[in-house]
Amino acid sequence: MYRGDAARTGVAGASRPPEEFLPWGALCPGPVLAAPAVASGMVVAVDAYGLLTARDAIRGVLRWTYAPEPRTLPGTVVTAAPVIHQGAAHFVSPEGGGRLLSLDLESGDVRWSRHTGVAAAAPAAAGGLVFACADGPRLCALSVEDGSEVWTAELGGYRSDEWDLIGEVLRSGGQPVFFGSSPAVCRDGVYLVGPDGALYALAATDGSVRWRRELDFSVRTSCAVDQDRVYASDPTGVLHVLDAHDGRTLWTRDTGIDAGDVVPVVSDGQVYVAGRAVSAGIPRLTSGAILAYDAVTGAHKWSRTTGSWVAAPPAAGEGRVYLATRGSVLDAAELCALAATDGRVLWRRPVDHRSGHPTDVRWDGVRAATTVHDGVLYLGLPDRTLRALDAATGIVSFRFLRRRALRRARPVGVRRNRFIAGLRPALRVLLLVALCVAVGGALGATSWWLAAGAGAVPLLMAAAQGASRGLFTLGVRAQQRGAYRSAAVAFALARASQLLTPPGLRSAVHRVRTLGNLTVSVGQSGAFGLWKSLAAAHRYAASALARRSPGQETGLLRAQSYAMTAQGFTVFHESGRVDGTREAASYAARAVDLYRTVDAFSGRHRAEAEQANRLYLALAVPD
């Protein structure tokens, strides 16, 4: 079933990850705009161009890839998530005008394919059948074994006011893009919103229409089903709860948010609705909200606002709600876990909401829904990465996996010179470093020649400071892309160029932070000995700076250095390289004390302080 079950919870399996799991990240061929599918120890993700990658869910090792045929339309963007059922991955590929493919989960070989037309809806699978939207418009039920058609149901025609469908037709080169409601299968019923905006209930055995309700839904709205109830939001922000047997309305609530295409989620007797906040009837760009209601009575439980608006449905289960905000040019995106009882924030992590290539700017923003399986949270991002992290703690990725085949992969149907991966990040950083050194050397020689009589070298210092900032920026970008060794080289060269800069307080703080970034990069690369030495140097530099100039900024540097050391020892301990539990607990306690000393709990670093406190509690008071 798409997103785990008919209730769209997105959570399945055990509550804790396996002992051998270590958070990882991997590079995908293109921006990921659809939720990854996880089952049978495999995670399958599809990018915006229709290229499919399958990886080991625990270690992140690449198993196989599938690329559409060259006849894929250049203007078609894939947003339909794949589905795993009975040892096969099923997804809608844009090749050949739209085909439903069934791939073997172990080998990636094509088992069968059927023409359906380009559809923006994710298929669903249950009981040996795959349910997919097709041209007509209609809903097809196909056999998982051979793709033979079991039944097909004709649905109503398109609404005349759906101008977004006309835009999709134009963008796809004239090929129609069909409605985006993903079927929800519960018991012996199939529920979906048709192209006419009505909610349909079909029999899973033969496709006959059991009931139909005209409630003016958006054609891109998907519903959630929880045993005897069906949940769906209309464009005005009203949540409708219907009886799954006869379609009568049980209760409605005006949520006051613009849910858009975000699907409601039902878990443990509560229904969650997320979307964009509305002010004076106008959706706000930089604010979102999530609300929780009692699934039976509709009583309001809690609500929480988010820094950015929400474009993907949350995931709920095991007493937690996972939510990813979209981000925009005005604000950043983040991934957070909320308590299902009262909505308090359990942990929060920033995520990169920008695309990984200048030509992909139209895909900025987190649009893929989160998927949680066996205590591991998977999230696809527009910067062409797939992340896997611990769902309970939210620890970020410490291993970034790359493959040469993926680095060289290019989108199908698009010009090669626009999207080719290019040189390796390390070679690119070295070339830019050489350019900076050459320019800095030329400026330095000129400054020496101009200021030889006076004995001053202001231009040389300025050139060194500019080169240091440029190298530091390159290191940060390389670190965001996952090229940790390249980032370490850039940070080290930036540290060397800073030796010529004036020894002021701002420069000293910048040097300590640069050394901290170098320490994090080396730790993420897995070199424990070098990381331990750099971590000790970072703590010594931060402490010396704090003694030299006491203040909140330098105190925060000390607190961050202790928290970074504690988190690093925890990671290396979990990887089995060193028994670092006591060291991690000690440094976490010191970090918490320093954060409290500089009053960071009420400032901008409150999230870091709470994270250090949670890490200390997890180490000092284990389960």
What value does the Rg take, in angstroms? 26 Å
Major sheet: 6 strands, mixed
As a percent range, the share of strand residues is 25-35%
Poorly predicted regions: 165-176, 403-423, 447-457
Distance between the termini: 33 Å
Within the largest sheet, what's the order of strands?
1-32-33-34-2-35
Number of helices: 11
Mean pLDDT: 77
Q: Judging from the principal axes of the Cα atoms, what is the shape? A: globular
Number of strands: 35
Q: Report the helical percentage.
A: 25-40%
Structural class: alpha+beta
Describe the model:
The protein has 623 residues and is an alpha+beta fold. About 7% of the residues have low confidence. Strands 1-32-33-34-2-35 form a six-stranded mixed β-sheet, with no helix packed on it. Strands 23, 24, 25, 26 and 27 form a five-stranded antiparallel β-sheet that branches. It is globular and about 75 Å long. The chain is built from eleven helices and 35 strands. Helix 4 packs parallel to helix 6, helix 5 packs antiparallel against helix 6 and helix 8 runs antiparallel to helix 9. Strand 25 and strand 26 form a beta hairpin.
